[in-house]
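Study this protein:
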Amino acid sequence: MNPRVIVDRLVVFVLVIAGWQLCSSYFGTIWFSSPWRVLDRFIDELRSGDLFFQAAYTLKAALYGSLLGGIPAALLPFALRRRPVAGAILDPYFVGGYGVPKLALAPLFILWFGVDLEPKVALVASIVSFLVFFSTTAGVNAVNSQYVNVARVFGATERDIARHIVWPGAIPYAFAGFRIAAPYAIGAAVVGELISSNRGLGFLIQSGATDFDTTLVFVSLTTLTMIVIVVNLLVGRCERWLLRWRPAQRGLTSKVIGA
């Protein structure tokens, strides 16, 4: 990484901490806890093990929901590619489902699955599935048709085309979809915990807000921020390792988002 980028990131971090401290001094620590209070509380929660326990519960819901919703959503565009009529029929339903506010589904998931881990997993899956599906669909549609036509001229079967042309061309888009969906998955798990839970980081945020303990709220939010950063880095490294045979492609995630 460029050393200038590292220095600039550190400068931005210092400015954020300074702005945070100014807000705490101006509004008061009761309403806007200081970074030093948050750091002390963060260390205390780590030592007690409670923060690990709550974060693990949130991560479990995010992971299970991402796998449950993301894997079928990544495979579906490859199946619909060979059935364009079915894809055209289902397209407005996918668009409509994507536009439904997922938070409105949370009460239904609680009614159907109870108040334990299952409704959080369902809420995460409902969000991740659409993000991964549309991202992977963009990759399938972006495959160069000339490659497909040339392969057919040389006698390639549909299975050969899918394996050697479509699949390698679309998989990076699927990974980009998972990278985009990762923060949403964690956020959805937290939202589910805010609505109904007795565990997780969302539960800590709700408890802190109820008790006017803003330090606990900021500890939970800081932990969530760190988790999202780490998860994004892990997904990125996994993507680079699995797709190390491909030349580097910059800006793929931004292209998918723009699409």
Notes: The domain at 33-258 is CATH 1.10.3720.10 (MetI-like fold). The chain has two domains: 1-32, 33-258.
